[in-house]
């Protein structure tokens, strides 16, 4: 191997030795409560398919019909070659679902953050950012060139303190926070953060990727959960989690959406999601607007699983959502735990540094409405077995 590549192999070896090398398993089936993983039937505790939409008959049918009507690809960026009706319909429907006046969709939640942050702030500005914000927020913030000032996780007092300290040093400011923090499953105190944003007249943005389809009435998200309609300036969401498809969204005031159609770089320089993707997202909205049944089942399942895991003696951290971390500490133990679960038929990934802080490695269980009570009981039984074998519980 050429010398100039040696450092990469050394880095990879270091990751392996530390138990931090991520071996990606291969899925050979549609998403659902059960998967074929590396050729083996496994109970799925990994995916963000909160509502079972990734293989829902209504979404599949909508996608197939969209292929017949629009074909498979958008063939160019929307701002240059025209935008398909299906993307505009999705945006209208999404705005109505979120009870805002406008929405714009992107290729992913990641792209939405890369689009919106640099469009709103630049070199003369500051971003007040929760220290545990998602990587795509961090990257969007860096791309903007604005000064990034972190505040303590989910801590309004810390936010207010850094705002006071930065007074007079900037042109514009933006407060940005995850809605649901995906590694711990806790929820940002958006009501208190909003009060501060309002008081200091600062733009407020929430990234509700894990709240979309999960929090609020019928899955309308964190703004609905806190009854802050019309008050949060920018609500970012994703259609790749509970919506089971692919795509990102920014919902808010028409002036912001209009600006993003002119200045959101992933919108201007990258093609849109495919027509069947957009149509499937519309079908997800149909299902969500018809009934809260799936969202209710998701929460029932989550409450049951979490309570039973606590009864078994596991530390499920600070989660208040269907995201259920099983705190284990060392990355090597978490990896061993995940491997043993897999040998016993449960697919649940270990998360270590840099996804979570050092010493806070864990297994993260993602609960879904697609799980039956029987599935959850099977999972609990296997967690008990592996937990005892590895000395995590008594
Ligand atoms: C998953 C996630 C994203 C990325 O969403 P994609 O649609 O998968 O790109 C962005 N922000 C947060 C907070 C997320 O959890």
TrEMBL record:
Catalytic reactions on record: 6-carboxyhexanoyl-[ACP] + L-alanine + H(+) = (8S)-8-amino-7-oxononanoate + holo-[ACP] + CO2
Involved pathway(s): Cofactor biosynthesis; biotin biosynthesis
Modified residue annotations for N6-(pyridoxal phosphate)lysine: 241
UniProt-listed Enzyme Commission number(s): 2.3.1.47
Reported cofactor(s): pyridoxal 5'-phosphate
Subunit structure comment from the entry: Homodimer.
Family: Belongs to the class-II pyridoxal-phosphate-dependent aminotransferase family. BioF subfamily.
Functional note: Catalyzes the decarboxylative condensation of pimeloyl-[acyl-carrier protein] and L-alanine to produce 8-amino-7-oxononanoate (AON), [acyl-carrier protein], and carbon dioxide.
Annotated protein name in UniProt: 8-amino-7-ketopelargonate synthase
Species for this entry: Leptolinea tardivitalis
Organism classification: Bacteria, Bacillati, Chloroflexota, Anaerolineae, Anaerolineales
